[in-house]
Structure formats: structure tokens, C-alpha cells
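Hey, I was hoping to borrow your eyes for a little while. No rush at all, and the record is pasted right below.
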Amino acid sequence: MGYLNSYKYVANRTTSFTNTCTWRPYLAQGNYDIYVYYPSVAGATTNATYTIRTLGGDIVRNINQTENPYQWNLLATKVPMPEGTTGYVRLNNTTGETSNTTKVLADAVKFVFTGIAGPPEITNVAASPTSSSATITWITDQYATSVVEYGLTTDYGTVVSDDAEVASHSVAITGLIPNTTYHYRVASTSPTGTTYSDDYTFRTPPFVQIIDDPEASYEGGWTIGGTPVNVYNGTYRFATINSSEATASATFTPNIPLAGAYNVYCHYNSGGNRTRAARYT
């Protein structure tokens, strides 16, 4: 039997649930550890879906109801819950398994108060830079907004924000200078307050882009070279010189992420019939 000798069940659905069970207690605002209880039943689902309505949004957890029956199983910890009956735990019968092959068990849910809900706790702050952009990521223990302040010093000066309340944060920043060190910090706001991280730094790598002969555009008569010797990436092309006028051109067009000064290099292979006056514009 279930907790206090009773429980209910319903047949599962692969997608698009048809049944729900909601546990909606009256709570004081604060953080809670939330547990679920279910009996041992033949044919129980391995993927019961519980949704927790928290102070900052929804948290979804999946439980294998064939494991650990007749005990309290931790669903989520330090969950910020609102005062009153706004917060709840809801179980639905969508499991991803073939419809009508398993049973979804609804028995009991336990809310254990662990403390007054404070502002978000920020962890796992990280930056993934490219030569002209970076993605800043972090985790909060509750649903909260996302803010990144960044700049060349700890005064920052530029802010990128996202008002969507999430627990796993990712913010993209663009228009960065290659080969440059940036300072940044992140912040998250929930109904319980705002938290700022410490100062962090990242360095953008130098910008290097190579346009090889297959990516170039051509006008006039160009011939693919024969057996390559010291040729970049194995191929090259050549055109016959006309001393009176230009009859052929090759254009190498890069994708420049930021206006600025660049060193530009060319590469060619050796040979006895090379021009001494190749003209690059």
C-alpha cells in the first residue's frame, strides 16, 4: 500500500498528458527540500514527470518509480517557494514510454522547510571567448534573471541583460577586440533579491583567418597547379602574365569581425617561372 495506506495511479501517455495530480500546501515563504513517496507496483513507470512551481518559475524533475519504493525520495533541494498556495508539485502522466504500458503513481509529497529564502546563489561562472565575442555562463540555485557587466577594467561600462528567469544562465557578448583582456561579473535577480558575482577575466584570442585558393573568387584564365611543392593546404592556381593589361584576377575576401588594423600575409610556392612583380591590391 501507499503512504497512509492509499495511493492512486493512471496509465501513462507517450506525449501530451491527459491526467495530472497536484499537491498544493499552504507554505510560509522560504526554501524547502521536497520529497516524493510511492509504493512498489508492478508496471510502474521509470520516468514519472513532476513539475515544481517555485517562487521564480517551474522546475521539472523525473523519477524512476520502480526504484526506492516505500521511502521518501528527494525531488529537489533548497527550492524557494512562495507564501500561500501559489507553489505546488504537479505530476502528469506523460512518460515518453509507449502509451498504456506503464502506471504513473500518485501518492504523497513532503515539503521540509530549510530556511528563509535569500537572494540567488551564483556558482560555476565561466567564459568561452572567441576573437570577437564571448559566451558567459553560470548557475543559480533558483530561477532568476541574467546580467553581465564587462569592460577593459573593473569599472566595466557595458551591460548585457536578459529578463527571462532561468536557473542555467547563458549570455552572449559581441563586438570584442581580439587579443584583449576583459573584466566581467554576472548578476541575477529573483523575487528574493539580487546577487553579484566576483570579478572575473577572460582574454580573447588573436584573430587569424586564412582564405585559401578554393575559397577565392576568380576572373580570367586561372589554371590549377600541378604537383605541389611547399603549397599551402596542397593546392594553388596560376595565370599567365600579360604585360600590357590585367586579364585575370583572384580575390580573397575575409569575414572581418571588427574594423581595425590587421597584418596581411600571402603564401606561394617556389618555382623557376614565377613573376617578380605580382600586384596585390
Remarks:
- The chain has no helices and 19 strands.
